[in-house]
Amino acid sequence: MKITIIGAGAVGNLLAARLSATPAQVSLLARGEALEAVRRQGIMMVTPLRRVVYAQPHVTDDAHELGPQDVVFLCVKAHALRSALDSLSLLTGPHTVVVPMINGIPWWYPYQQPAPLADQPLNSVDPSEALWRTINPAQVIGATTFVAVENDGPGRIRHISDQRFVFGAISPDSPHTAAMVTEIVDLFGQAGFQSRATDDIREAVWVKLWGNLGFNPLSALTGATLGTLCLDPGTRSVGRAMMLEAKAVAEQLGITFGTSVDERIEMAAGVGDFKTSMLQDFEAGRRLETAAIIGAVIELAERLGMAVPTLRTILALLEMRVRSRDHALQSAA
Question: What is the pLDDT of residue 271?
């Protein structure tokens, strides 16, 4: 199986390091400092057991040299997907499956869904509809990741905890993607991950989103780790209110949750003192995934005619916090 991973962030490097130990032919598409670091020294990973593991995957910045792949994992931020389209077109053949490893509500979510989605792209995550028009949904496999992994510099990651992945076809009309789900689950098992297939990937998206939506924004606002946010009565209460609003939206879209909000919070608390990806991005001066994690849920609520006041309040505060950060960085430059 020929696999390319687009993006050398924390999750991309984790996949490249672990999948390289399987029989698959794995390539990592990277650029800038990340490209040079992996070329020079490979990927250094600190495991949850504090073992230091080195991997040397094939790495390049030239998608043309790789050609069409069997599987392409998109391991970039949701707002950076459009910048990956040129590379993706060079890696995609008629039988390639595309697996976005992204947080929040993905651009493909409305595909073959009833009203009010009804194949209408989400402006919050795909404002130009470039993703909707460019990536064939019949070739997409949905995925959710439950891993706590941090960047520790170019080519260096710390895998804190968890290694669970869920995969599922976004449409029942594609036998090829359904078969590939099984192959990907098996491959991830060979890499030592806990992986499974699901017949309802949209439900898995919401279960993952619950944790991101409830605590990623609060982490960027407060600077607190996930464990602290879940245990502090004040921030736990705010996060819980956000999750309940999102749950109501999801249920109106036909999602049935197999776990309660409080159980999901306890799952997050079990991760401990981990900096969420949004806090890591905020501290590094990078753009935040607010559109996919909060904005998309607010847009869905608007389509349904539902009020989500807590989500709107937190989004407004977070946008102000980002503007203040950016102004300070510009003033210091």
Answer: 79
